[in-house]
Amino acid sequence: MLLAGDVGGTKALLGLFLDRPGRPELVDARAFATRDHAGLEEVVDAFLAVQASPAPPVTAASFGVAGPIVNQVARLTNVPWVVDAAAISARFAIPTVTLLNDLQAMAYSVEVLRPDELAIVQPGRAEPTGNAALIAAGTGLGEALLHRIGGRFIPSPTEGGHADFAPRTPDEVALLGHLTARFGRADYEHVISGPGL
Questions:
Q1: What is the band of 194 on the pLDDT scale with cuts at 50, 70, 90?
Q2: Which residue, of 109, 134, 159, 193, has the fewest CB within 10 Å?
């Protein structure tokens, strides 16, 4: 049994999956309001508490978290949580726990999406040897690069949403003035994210 999570500033989505070749099979998934909980361990407790008893043991867990990860510890960007892979492993007796940037984790799914899980926003001409990018405007502005290496995409996390907002028009310059007066510094997350919009 695999435990996976997408942990953002607004909600944490957790799921249990059967390990299957190519793409794990979903057993159960639930959403939790992030700010209703003190940390990810509390969310995992709540999720596991509603599973069928006795639940099969979880052999590995992976969490995509909204923020940078250093030595498998993440300080989330838009919620005051610290997520520590070793602490989760010890608390829940899960042998392998891995943290990834949330958009990097999402980017790993791109190559296994089914046609019914895709929607064309704007038609274009695909470049079969080109790279790709993943952008998600939520509580923050997540971005990941997908480098094409050896014929497949290799996801790379970024914190591109925190890059300085670079205005190009008089209206955008005026917006920059408004944002710097309010925040001291204007980054793209202030413009293109849930709170920014």
A1: confident
A2: 109
Q: Please, what is the average pLDDT of the chain?
A: 92
pLDDT tens digit sequence for 6-47: 998 889 999 999 999 888 999 999 999 999 999 999 999 999
Alpha-carbon separation of residue 101 from 28, 142, 144 (angstroms): 22, 9, 9
- Where residue 72 falls among pLDDT bands split at 50, 70, 90? very high
Radius of gyration of the chain (CA): 19
Rounded Cα distance between 176 and 165, Å, is 7
Q: Cβ distance 156 to 134 under 8 Å? A: no
Above 90 in pLDDT, residue 196?
no
Integer CA distances (angstroms), 157 to 28, 55, 99, 170, in order: 27, 33, 12, 32
Query: What is the spatial distance between Cα 168 and Cα 162, in angstroms, rounded to a whole number?
Result: 18
Helix axes 85-92, 40-49, angle to 10 degrees: 30
pLDDT for 161 equals 85
Instruction: Please give the structure tokens belonging to residue 5.
Output: 């999570």
CA distance linking residue 154 with residue 108, whole number of Å: 8
CB atoms within 10 A of CB 100: 20
